[in-house]
């Protein structure tokens, strides 16, 4: 049976002819939304050490992180090609000379075939865009933009510190470059339901982005969201609701749009809710089963026939 959505693993195998592994990197950068000089404390769900091991702060240089990642990929996975993924925090929030040294150092390592840069829509000044264009002439580049929702009221509620319109302007800047644009979306945000999910999906579907990451809102210890949850002001998603929301989202996306991720994980000691998010395979299997049950697939709502050509 053909896949019902365009998986990132399939895209990478088609592009590079073999398995490719992302090496997640911590460059020790901060974020303008929680910077003490300019920020307001950050997004309500954000806890930076939930998605990395703070290796940079522990004294492990980026080059050493890459070396360790390549070694593990070789020895445990038999993988020979890698993407250097600057994941932690806002990876364009630094002077351009510092970023140039970081990024060029990463792509110089043998076996690195791509560079992925996670950042915010409001952190792409002209000098950084120029650097990204320069890098894209030498290697495949992904720029990952955190958005979470296309609803401005939600963005304000969760403390994003930027608007949907600012996101659109960032996408327009990047769309002029030979890079792949990936947008992060979160389901189950405060006061959002299926109608909001569909609204965001349709907005992304009609934009010039190439890829999307979708995952549930995670309530982590030590965040503002934890306090809201404990006081009953927000609720955690139920698995069935997330699965239905993800399937609804998928059917609005164009068949050629790559889905990089359909769930998220966090360290057990940090995750308060939903606990089902700790079981990645259960979540992914539930989504695939629901797609079959609903007899839907990526692009169905846009008139794409099954199976989508992009996933054949």
Description:
- This protein has helices at 8-16, 62-77, 96-107, 126-136, 152-157, 164-175, 194-205, 224-230, 239-252, 280-294, and strands spanning 20-25, 81-86, 112-119, 140-148, 180-187, 211-216, 219-220, 258-261, 271-273.
- The protein starts with 7 loop residues before the first helix and ends in an 18-residue tail after the last helix.
- α3 (96-107) links the parallel β2 and β3 (112-119).
- The protein has 312 residues and is of the alpha/beta class.
- The protein has 10 helices and 9 strands.
- The radius of gyration is 19 Å and the shape is globular.
Helix content: 25-40%
**Cα distance spanning the termini:** 10 Å
Order of helices and strands: HEHEHEHEHHEHEEHHEEH
- Spatial strand arrangement across the major sheet: 1-2-3-4-5-6-8
The rounded Rg comes to: 19 Å
Assign the structural class, choosing from mainly alpha, mainly beta, alpha/beta, alpha+beta, or little secondary structure: alpha/beta
Number of strands: 9
Number of helices: 10
Mean pLDDT: 92
Précis, in short:
This protein has 312 residues and is of the alpha/beta class. Helix content is 37%, strand content 17%.
Could you give the topology of this structure?
Elements: H1 8-16, E1 20-25, H2 62-77, E2 81-86, H3 96-107, E3 112-119, H4 126-136, E4 140-148, H5 152-157, H6 164-175, E5 180-187, H7 194-205, E6 211-216, E7 219-220, H8 224-230, H9 239-252, E8 258-261, E9 271-273, H10 280-294
Helix pairs in contact: 3-4, 7-9, 9-10
